[in-house]
Amino acid sequence: MNDFDVPDGIDVLRVFCGPDGRHGNALGVVREGGAYPDEASRQTLARTLGFSETVFVDDPERGRVDIYTPGLRLPFAGHPLVGAAWLLDLELLELPVGDVFARQDGEFTWISARPEWAPPRMLERYASAAEVDALTGPPPGEGWLYAWAWEDEAAGRVRARAFPRRDDGIGEDEATGAAALLLSAALGRALNIRQGRGSQILTAPAPDGTVEVGGRVLLLNAVPAGV
């Protein structure tokens, strides 16, 4: 048994787990995307599951996937792609925005993507990690906010928290690959990000303008289709 009331045929992962295997962002992976053939049925399932994202696999060989939050469809998102690449052992994921390359490196799964593919994020720097820790919820304002501060600037260590500030039931996003990608691109350097309660996201900009985003993935359950 697992802690998630999910329909048959859906795997549940935690992506961007910390070094101790804890935390990470929950992800639903629908291996048989054809069971939910249209946008309305996929959006309904994503809302019902309530994960920050659910990914539908439309072609496991080509890596064609479709990503939803509880309230909208996304052209790109980090933690669903890292999770799907790990689960399906893929080296390429096909998205409407372009092809995302993936690789495994020990305990980390990496994807490589372009910053312009990521949905806009407000990257707001705080004076200290303690100020980020002290946030009790989304700060006032509108728009998707990534609150961050240096823990150790010389070492590239960042403390971050993410607040979607949209009406879909996700008050705080535990681990956000797209925001980490954008921050790494903006700063022009590799980062080791501690987000949320203790998730870990690694980034590495490349000379061609892409950014690699990597993390650990843990399988919480594997529910066979039709059982």
Summarize the structure.
The chain is an alpha+beta fold and about 230 residues long. The protein contains four helices and 14 strands. Helix 1 links the parallel strand 2 and strand 3 (about 55-60).
Number of helices: 4
The gyration radius over C-alpha positions equals: 17 Å
Low-confidence stretches: 222-227
Strand content: 35-45%
- The ordered H/E elements are EEHEEEHEEEEHEEHEEE
Number of strands: 14
How confident is the prediction overall: mean pLDDT?
Answer: 93
Biggest β-sheet: count, sense, barrel?
Answer: 14 strands, mixed
Distance between the termini: 13 Å
Name the helicity range.
10-25%
State the shape.
globular
Structural class: alpha+beta
Name some characteristics of this structure.
single chain; alpha+beta; 14-stranded mixed β-sheet; 4 helices; 17% helix; disordered C terminus
Descriptive notes:
The protein is α+β, with helices and mostly antiparallel strands. 17% of the residues lie in helices and 39% in strands. Strands 1, 2, 3, 4, 5, 6, 7, 8, 9, 10, 11, 12, 13 and 14 form a 14-stranded mixed sheet that branches. The longest helix is centred in the first third of the chain and has 11 residues, at 39-49. The chain is globular and about 50 Å long.
Topology readout:
Elements (H helix, E strand, L loop, with lengths): L9 E8 L7 E6 L8 H11 L3 E7 L4 E5 L4 E2 L3 H11 L3 E4 L2 E8 L2 E6 L8 E4 L3 H5 L11 E8 L4 E7 L13 H11 L3 E5 L3 E7 L5 E11 L6
Parallel strand pairs: 2-3, 9-10, 11-12
Antiparallel strand pairs: 1-2, 1-14, 3-4, 4-5, 6-7, 7-8, 8-14, 10-11, 12-13, 13-14
